[in-house]
Amino acid sequence: MKILQLVTKRQYRGAEVFAANLSEELINLGHEIIFVGLYKNKGNILQLDRAQNIDLIENTKIFSLLLVKKLVSLVKEVKPDVIQCNGSDTLKYMVSASFFVPGIPILYRNISMISEWVPDGPKKIIYRNLFKRVAHVSSVGEEAVADFVKTFNYPSSQTSVIRRGIPLKEIEKNKAREQLKRELGLMESDKIAMHIGNFSIEKNHIFLFDIFSDLKLKYPDIKLVCVGTGILFEELKEEVVKRELENTIYFMGFRKDIPELLAGADLFVLSSKVEGVPGVILEAATQCIPSIATDVGGVREVLNNNQTGFIIKDFNKEEFKKRIIELTENDELSNRLGRNAYGLVVKDFNPVRNAGKFETLYRNLIGGNRSCLRILQIIQKKQYRGAEIFASQLSNHLLNKGHKVKIYSIYEGDAILPFKKQLYSLNRAESYRYYDLAGWKKLAQIVRQFKPDIIQANAADTLKYAIFSKLVFRWDVPVIFRNASASSFYVKNNFSKKLNSFLLKRTDYILSVSQASKKDINSFYPFTRQKSTVIPIGIEPNEISSEEENNVPFDKQKKNILHIGSFTQEKNHAGLLMVFKKVHSRNPDAVLHLIGDGPLKANIIKSIKEYDLDGVVVIHGESNYPYPYIKKADVLVLPSLIEGLPAVLLEAMLYQTLSVAYNVGGVSEIITKDTGYLVKEGNIDDFAEAILQALEENAKNKRILEHAYKLVVEDYLNEKLVDRFLDSYIKLL
Question: 672-713, pLDDT tens digit by residue?
Fold first, then answer.
């Protein structure tokens, strides 16, 4: 999609920075962004890489017909699919321009409590009419959207809540603290409360000045550091001098290094009279910094009282002062609230997931011409492996949406994959995988007969067949490669690297299953950066009957640990047996169940005997329906040496079975301390300890299961991912 992001100025302020961060994620998802400021910014210009950056006119205090004209010309020139307005001026001018360029949906991003800015009277009437030409309003929080609907009597069906996405940046806190104190000339023992925001009436700096005037008397080591600029900047600096607070309150002006400054602080303070959903509290949380804030607007949506910081009711200065003292004197409390705040951001304000929600919203507003595509899916083999299962499930959803799909495997296999139509095979010999002219010709004949609009190659051998068939037999259909793992793990020599480079250069687009997989292929083959994005693997919610669950041969009196995966090197069954031996020595009721087959199966059976684990390690063979096993297991384990984004973990999360996994590939994108047990790669002792903890029945594990289930249902069901694949297909047509 081509998206026009309209901001007031390309400046480092909340709405504009949010629009830039969102746009960055949308670019990563493969969309084209035109980042436009209504007015030219004279300094500290916000520049968005990989996007068109445009400013229209000099700032004006009166309504500008020239600006409307320039907007109309711009829209006609770039032809965006959707326009997002970020700020009231952008709305005013874009709605005016829309009379001359109709038909393009306009989305308004509401970041505040709009009733505070639009009082009853002519202004309210004007805005109510402006919003009649807006297709949708997306608000930063529940309070903000309720306020908007009430203020303008706007249809709630045309509103949504999509929270801010807050990028995480890891910073060494001790170094940041030393640097900040050195810059301000502070003592090592001084404590820093930081405020970041525009110097304007609604930010209520005087409230903080009153508090720090009192603190100065008994707690002179507690300092207030104010970051930002604005119309009241000079006036408030004079106020500090007047109160003789120069050694208590410090001004840093405009800064770009906000994460580094926050990392150097002890706490964050916000005294606003008006707020939407203050992203700066979340930015503090990314550095494990707790916050104290006045109870206004949507503050409660980003700050949990007594858990991630403190909320002060009724602008109670004594309470505010008391909480500042608590956080500066009680390190254990401060650290606990800071850790909780960080967990909140990771769980609810993930920028990638939120960008996906905007992507879906844009798609729904646009509609799009997807009446009937012809899609050829190529899989490696009819086998029970993640790539093949997902390709089958995705294809079912494509069929449900009215598209024509065929699946061909390169090699034959005996797995019954979950594709609801016939699944074909080229029946090629695996020994011919590097040169198979007859196989390439056979694929070319299929392409000419089926006439697909798109070919999706799922795994490395399928890409070889698709590209060599296309080159030798000269058919012209775009080829998408589904990158399901880490290229660097499988490329063992220079020939292999050059061959894959040759293939990828002739691939039209690359869809990686995780950020880790994308980063790996982009690093290994830098030329792929401009034609790759991430669409995660998804899963199907299967209803499991009590009869199916009862048929699972697990002893209810035992602790049943489950692993699902082929017996191959990367699945690391040998390492798992070492882990399980430690677990079993401490919990004799533990039983390890292995589902799968593969070339190393005989070796693993031998190792089971050598470790004297006969009877407590059970091999069940391959299964085309492992879901009852997953649901009935106490713990699912994944000790893999490499993974893209393992669907089996998502299935465990869906069926509310605890997971323990090594931190490899994209595993950490779904398994965190809130959704499972993530273990440093290769640490056998920690893996065993994590399994033992997961086997316990306690409140912590119950919370993990709740968070894991919510994550999967919101972001990893195939029915929600299919449109993202369609966007990628259409982009190439």
Answer: 999 999 999 999 999 999 999 999 999 999 999 999 999 999
Spell out the alpha helix ranges (H) of 367-436: 386-400
CA distance 290 to 336: 9
CA-based diameter of the chain, in Å?
88
How much is the CA Rg of the chain, to the nearest whole Å? 29
Residue by residue, DSSP assigns 464-494 as HHHHHHHHHHT----EEEEE-S-HHHH--SH
d(CA 171, CA 133): 44
Q: Which two tokens stand for residue 241?
A: 């001098």
What number of other Cβ atoms are within 10 A of residue 334's Cβ? 20
- The answer to whether 361 and 384 are in contact (CB under 8 A) is no
What is the DSSP-derived secondary structure letter of residue 307? T
530: closest CA among 509, 506, 502, 503?
509
- Classify residue 519 as exposed, middle or buried by CB count within 10 Å of its CB (0-12, 13-18, 19+): middle
Cβ contact 229:237 at 8 Å: no
Question: Dihedral of CA 425/431/434/440: which sign?
Answer: negative
Contacts of residue 558, defined as CB under 8 A and 6 or more positions apart, other chains included, come to 589, 590, 591
The stretch 182-199 carries a mean pLDDT of: 95
Backbone angles phi, psi at 378, to 5 degrees: -110, 125
Rounded to whole angstroms, the Cα distance separating 727 from 82 reads 14
Q: How far is CA 243 from CA 207, 210, 222, 272, 689, in A?
A: 13, 10, 16, 21, 57
What's phi and psi for 478, nearest 5 deg? Answer: -60, 140
Of residues 51, 116, 49, the one with CA closest to residue 88: 116
Helix and strand tally (H, E) in the chain? Answer: 27, 26
Q: Residues 473, 441: contact at Cβ < 8 Å?
A: yes
pLDDT band of residue 371 (cuts 50, 70, 90) is: low
Closest CA to 456 of 485, 425, 481: 481
Higher pLDDT, 360 or 5: 5
Residue 38 predicted with pLDDT over 90: yes
- Name the DSSP class of 420: S
Alpha helices (H) along 165-289: 173-184, 205-218, 233-242, 258-263, 279-286
Predicted local distance difference test score (pLDDT) of residue 616? 96
Closest listed residue to residue 145, CA positions, set 311, 27, 276, 320: 276
Q: Is the pLDDT of residue 369 over 50?
A: no
And the tokens for 576?
Answer: 């798992």
What is the phi/psi pair of residue 623, to 5°? -145, 135
Contacts of 445 (CB under 8 A, 6+ apart): none
Map tokens 């490669």 to a residue.
481
Percent residues over pLDDT 70 in the chain: 99
Helix 718-731 and helix 386-400, axial crossing angle in degrees, nearest 10: 80
CA distance 288 to 266: 9
Contact call for residues 480 and 507 (beta carbons, < 8 A): yes
